[in-house]
Structure formats: structure tokens, C-alpha cells
Specification:
Blueprint lengths: L3 H8 L2 H21 L1 H8 L5 E4 L9 E4 L4 E4 L2 H4 L5 H23 L3 H14 L1 H22 L4 H12 L10 H14 L9 H11 L9 H5 L6 H31 L34 H5 L19 H10 L6 H15 L5 H13 L3 H15 L10 H15 L5 E7 L4 E2 L2 H9 L8 E6 L9 E7 L9 H27 L8 E8 L7 E7 L4 H10 L10 H11 L2 H8 L3 E9 L6 H13 L3 E7 L6 H4 L4 E4 L5 H15 L5
Parallel strand pairs: 1-3, 7-8, 7-10, 10-11, 11-12
Antiparallel strand pairs: 2-3, 4-6, 5-6, 8-9
Helix pairs in contact: 1-2, 5-6, 5-7, 5-8, 6-7, 7-9, 7-12, 9-10, 9-12, 17-20, 18-20, 18-26, 20-26, 22-24
Length: 662
């Protein structure tokens, strides 16, 4: 229910309006105080934050500052509609997800172009704006519930009680049925949504377009992880055609009702859709040049409402106004456009010396500044990952092993021993005098130097290849954790190689560390992402980071990647492995069963016969088949969030071997 104060404000004078304003401000502040911890947890480390709107902000809802990553909110915008505080929270977070999606789009290369093209379309055709709103709302709702599952019931109540209380949509034009039914079905799966049979058939057809993981095109487009530009492309590719088909049918139906004589199809062609049927004039009203006499009298200027000026969307003006009324956008589009303009201007502002240096470095490395910053932020997140068994950061544990390995390989030095009874240096002369006077024949007052014990035979080379899975079933958390794991392994070993370079002059037993990265999925995803080598360039980092975020494959062809890796090993390296001077490790990650387990086992035997370790790690229980396929070196990481620590521990194990193989 709406609060009494709000009703009074509508019927009272300025004094009551002032009282209501103060009440609203107090309620707003209390909203943020009560939900402070929840909002902080919800936002996490996002680049956009939710803040209480200052009292002097003129807009009803709040505002957005994309340049500084802030969204200002007045919860009273929703409570004023009679929504409970819980529903107001759902609506607030829903708008936040819209702003965050836009911010992420504009922050990426090509984002400005995609945004401007999208806006031009939305302004040109109101019906496209409605479709986009419905599809986008599904994604935002899913994002809210993913971050805050406890709000699911509140969200359902909001849609059932306030936004879509009616099950039957058949009175709407079919194109609006199509757009709104998709949103309602995804928002209220527990309720029946009734549409025209042909509309339902089209929705069913789209739900049937699935990938190998069983995810429909609608669910893929509206997944929280799907970037905005990808969502828009999928809307165009799959939803636009049936939507426009229904629109044309609706237009023809409207025309036929206005002009029954045209039911045979005379007005159904594309060219007639822009004509105003009710204003059509007969041939007797045209002069011999074919011009409308009224048009000629007005100097040839056509006026709104005359023949040729009617927009087909005008047939649905009432329905569109009803939609806008029930789906008022809290942030007016002019405010969004102003925020986007300010954001884009800020991106192009005069750069500082440090920014110019950063840009020059990025250009030299073949990446953008935005890509460089995004990757560095990603790496800082990885550095904080802890080993759940030790509560220590995995990177630090690896660094400690690196230091120990290097220390054990340094040139032999003389080790000091004291006190001893014989030696080269009299370390304690006073003690010597005292003990000799006391009758001690061989006092332990000497210091001697002796060489350190010769270390065990050591490996001179250490290669690690990581092979991530880019099949579609990896989409979401698994893909993100796999991406972190690959970066952890490659970056840690790059640090190890750099440390060796720094200490090389003092090493008696040299060591070379190389890394390699491949991926698999379909044939298109079986590719080398980083060649075997000591280097790790910024371009390679960004390439791997971006590529592993994309998991489009419909297959699991791990065997194909392994076969190519085997074929790529040089004869020189095979000889080094045979002679015990090269240790080679291959780590395969996957969340599913291989398309050909027999081919995997065949290539595994080839590797193992030549003393190359190939380990398969199944991600979640879905990857349990790996335990058998890669036996005896197959294991399962049941929690995707533990993947990095699992691979980190595996790396530690094999690192320990390179300083003590025999």
C-alpha cells in the first residue's frame, strides 16, 4: 500500500508537500542504513556503485555518473508506487544491472560505436525499444537473482502482483504478445502465460534452438555473463525476424479493419504501410499532372496526417502508451545519453604524462590501454586466491618454492663451521688461553671452511603446457575459474623464469622454464594460444584472457589438441627428455567427457612412453569421466572455485621434482 503521506501530498498544499519531502528523505536514508552491508556485498568490486541520491537531485529516481562509476538512487521512486521495501530493492538492483551493462559496453573497444548504433535503432522504431526492453529485463533479473538469490521470491511477487498480473495476453497485438510473453514466461515460470497459438509456436521454436549443453538461444542471450553487444546481436539474429513478422501481420489486420475492401491483399505490400488509409482521395481530386490538389495548393508540402505520412506504429499508439505507462524507465533516456556523452568525453580528455607512457607501452605491445588495465585488475584478483588447506596465498607459496629452487642451484661456496677443535681461523682467542691453562689439549675455539655438499643431479629444463576447455558447457563460473587458473600458472612460471634470469650469473646448475597454452572444443577452438617459450607478452596475456572468456564449442576434442602438441615436440626436446635434462608436464582442464576417449588414451600412451606427464583435471562432478580417461593421472575438482588452488598444488608437486629427480 501507498503511505498516507503520499496520498496527502497529492491533495494537500505546499506545507504538506514539504512535510512529505522531509519524510521521503528520512525514509531514503533509513533504506540505505538498513541495507548498507547487503548493498556492499552485492556490488562487490564492481566498477559501478550504488549511492544515496542527494536531496537536491531534481529527477524522481536519481541519476547516473558513468564517468565516475556511480548510480544515485531514491528508493521513494518505487515505494511511491506502493512497492514494499523488498520490491524497491529488486527494482533498484535491476536498474543497477542496466547501468553496469552499459558501463561495461562503453569501457570496451568498439563499445561507443555499438551503443550509438543501438540508440539510433531504438529512436527510429518504438517497437524495437519495447523488444529490447523485454529481453534486457530478463538478463537484469537473472543478474540480480544470481548475485542475491534471497530476492527471488520478492522478484516473482513483483511481476505477479504489479507488472504482469494477467495471464491472458491474447487481446494485445501479436508482436507485443511475443515480446512481453518472453519476459513474463522467464520471470514467472510458475504461471501460465496465454498467447495466440502462432505466438506460442514461435516462442517454442526459439526455446528449441539449443547448443550441445542444452541452453536455448534466449537463455544464452540473457545470461548475466553475456556482454551487451553480444545480447544485441543475438536479439537481431534470432528474435527480430519473428517480431517484425508479427508486427506486419498486426499492421495488415489494422488496415483491413479500416478498409474491408483491402482484405484481399491490396494493401499488404511494404510500400502501402506508410499510407494513411483514412485520408485516401479519389482520382477526381488530382490534376492532370497526378498531384493532389490540396497538396499543390499548399506548395507541395505534406502535413502530418495526410497521405504518405502515417507511421505504421501509429496503429498501436494506445498500446505503446500503455506499455510506457506500466514500464516507466526510472532514468530518462536524455539523462542516460548525457551520462554517456560525459563518459566518452572523459575517455578522450587530455592525458597525463603517466597515461601517455602507459598508452605508448600498450601500443608497442599491440594492445589497448583498456585491455592492459583490465588484465592487470584481473591478475590482482588472482594474486589474492588462497590455498584452502594452508590459508596462504597460492602465488606466495609458489614464489617461495621458486626462491628455494634457485638457492639450491647457486655456485658452491665455503660453508663456515664453528666452534671446532681444528681449523684455519682462531675464532675465540681468549677462550683458547683459558681452556689451555685449564688443561684442555684441543679446545673447540677454531673456525673452519668447507665446501657445501654437491647437490643431486638436477633437471636443466622445465616445460609446462596448459590445455583449457572452450566447449559451451564451460560457460559462466567454470570458464571464469579456468581463465584464472591458466593465468595463475602462466604468470607464476613467467615470474620463475624472470627470477632465474636475475640470478643466472650465480647459478652453477642452470635452469630454463618455458610455458605453452592450447585450447580445445570444436575444431575451431583447437588452437595454440601461446607458443612454447620463456616469454609472456602483454598481447599474449590479453589474447588468452579474452579467448578463454569465449566458450562457443559444441564438442570436446581434447584428443585433437593433445595430438597436435605431441606432433609439435621437437626432436631436440625428445632427446633432452630421454637424457633426463628436460621435465615436461601437460595439464588438461575439462568439465565433460571427451568426444573420443580411446583417442585420448592412445595419445596419452605415446606421451607417457616418452616420460611426459599428462594430467587431466575434471571441473565439477560433470567432469568425473576424466578420472578414468586420464588414469592414473586423472582427478576431479568438484568445486570450480577451487580449480586454481588444485592446479597450484599440482604445480608445486612437479616443481619439487626438478631439484631432486634422482
Amino acid at each position: 500500500m501507498k503511505s498516507p503521506e503520499i496520498f496527502e501530498a497529492k491533495s494537500g498544499g505546499k506545507e504538506k508537500e514539504a512535510v512529505v519531502s522531509i519524510h521521503m528523505e528520512e525514509t531514503q536514508s533509513n533504506f540505505f542504513k538498513r541495507n548498507k552491508e547487503f548493498l556492499e556485498h552485492y556490488m562487490g568490486d564492481s566498477s559501478v556503485e550504488i549511492l544515496e541520491a542527494p536531496p537536491n537531485l531534481p529527477t524522481p529516481f536519481g541519476g547516473v555518473d558513468l564517468e565516475n562509476g556511480k548510480m544515485y538512487v531514491k528508493p521513494s521512486f518505487f515505494t511511491g508506487k506502493g512497492y514494499s521495501e523488498g520490491k524497491a530493492m529488486v527494482c533498484t538492483l535491476h536498474e543497477y544491472e542496466h547501468i553496469k551493462e552499459l558501463f561495461e559496453l562503453l569501457s570496451r573497444k568498439g563499445g561507443e560505436k555499438a551503443w550509438k548504433a543501438h540508440q539510433a535503432e531504438m529512436k527510429s522504431k518504438q517497437r524495437l525499444h519495447i523488444l529490447d526492453n523485454c529481453v534486457g529485463d530478463i538478463k537484469m533479473n537473472r543478474a540480480v537473482i544470481k548475485r542475491a538469490p534471497s530476492l527471488k521470491e520478492t522478484k516473482n511477487n513483483l511481476y505477479e502482483e504489479d507488472l504482469f498480473p494477467e495471464d491472458d495476453m491474447t487481446k494485445m497485438p501479436k508482436h507485443l504478445q511475443f515480446a512481453q510473453a518472453i519476459l513474463r514466461k522467464k520471470s514467472l515460470s510458475n504461471r501460465t502465460t496465454i498467447t495466440a497459438p502462432e505466438v506460442q509456436a514461435e516462442i517454442d521454436r526459439l526455446e528449441g534452438i539449443k547448443n550441445s549443453a542444452g541452453i536455448s538461444v534466449i537463455d544464452y542471450a540473457t545470461a548475466p555473463e553475456t556482454p551487451m553487444d553480444m545480447r544485441l546481436e543475438l536479439q537481431k539474429a534470432y528474435l527480430r525476424e519473428p517480431y517484425e513478422k508479427f508486427f506486419e501481420e498486426d499492421v495488415k489486420e489494422k488496415k483491413d479493419k479500416e478498409n474491408p475492401e483491402n482484405k484481399d491483399g491490396e494493401s499488404g505490400d511494404e510500400g502501402d504501410q506508410n499510407e494513411s488509409i483514412g485520408d485516401a482521395e479519389g482520382d477526381e481530386d488530382k490534376d492532370k499532372e497526378g498531384k493532389n490538389k490540396k497538396e499543390k495548393a499548399d506548395g507541395g508540402r505534406k502535413k502530418k496526417g495526410e497521405r504518405g505520412e502515417k507511421n505504421p506504429e501509429d496503429y498501436f499508439k494506445k498500446e505503446y502508451e500503455e506499455w510506457e505507462k506500466n514500464n516507466t524507465e526510472p532514468l530518462p533516456m536524455k539523462d542516460i545519453e548525457k551520462a554517456v556523452e560525459d563518459f566518452l568525453k572523459a575517455k578522450k580528455k587530455e592525458k597525463t604524462a603517466d597515461e601517455m607512457i602507459e598508452e605508448a607501452y600498450a601500443n608497442a605491445e599491440g594492445v589497448t590501454v583498456e585491455e592492459l588495465r583490465e588484465y592487470r585488475s584481473f591478475w590482482r584478483e588472482i594474486e589474492d586466491i588462497e590455498n584452502p588447506e594452508t590459508n596462504e596465498k597460492i602465488v606466495e607459496e609458489l614464489r617461495e618454492i621458486f626462491r628455494r629452487i634457485v638457492a639450491e642451484r647457486k655456485k658452491k661456496t665455503l660453508a663456515s663451521k664453528l666452534p671446532v677443535s681444528e681449523g684455519e681461523i682462531l675464532a675465540y682467542p681468549a677462550e683458547a688461553v683459558t681452556q689451555i691453562k685449564a688443561g684442555v689439549r684441543e679446545p673447540e675455539v677454531w673456525q673452519t671452511l668447507e665446501p657445501k655438499e654437491k647437490p643431486k643431479e638436477l633437471y636443466g629444463n622445465f616445460d609446462v603446457t596448459i590445455v583449457p576447455d572452450r566447449s559451451f558447457s564451460m560457460k559462466g563460473e567454470k570458464a571464469e575459474e579456468q581463465r584464472k587458473t591458466a593465468a595463475l600458472l602462466l604468470e607464476a612460471l613467467k615470474e620463475f623464469a624472470d627470477l632465474i634470469d636475475e640470478e643466472r650469473i650465480d647459478l652453477e646448475y642452470d635452469l630454463n622454464v618455458r610455458t605453452e597454452c592450447w585450447s580445445f572444443g570444436d575444431d575451431e577452438q583447437v588452437e595454440m594460444l601461446k607458443p612454447l617459450g620463456r616469454e609472456m607478452t602483454e598481447k599474449q596475456r590479453v589474447h588468452i584472457y579474452k579467448t578463454l572468456a569465449d566458450t562457443p564449442g559444441d564438442s570436446t576434442k581434447d584428443f585433437s589438441a593433445l595430438e597436435k602438441i605431441f606432433e609439435g615436440v621437437s626432436e631436440d626436446d625428445w632427446e633432452k627428455i630421454k637424457n633426463g635434462v628436460l621435465r615436461k608436464i601437460i595439464i588438461v582442464l575439462s568439465d565433460g567427457e571427451s568426444d573420443d576417449a580411446s583417442r585420448v588414451k592412445e595419445v596419452l600412451n605415446k606421451f607417457r612412453e616418452r616420460d611426459v606427464a599428462v594430467i587431466g583435471i575434471g571441473i565439477t562432478k560433470a567432469g568425473k569421466a576424466i578420472r578414468n580417461t586420464y588414469a592414473p593421472d586423472g582427478l576431479v575438482c568438484e568445486e570450480a572455485s577451487n580449480l586454481a588452488s588444485t592446479v597450484g598444488a599440482l604445480l608445486e608437486k612437479y616443481l619439487e621434482e626438478i631439484n631432486g629427480k634422482k
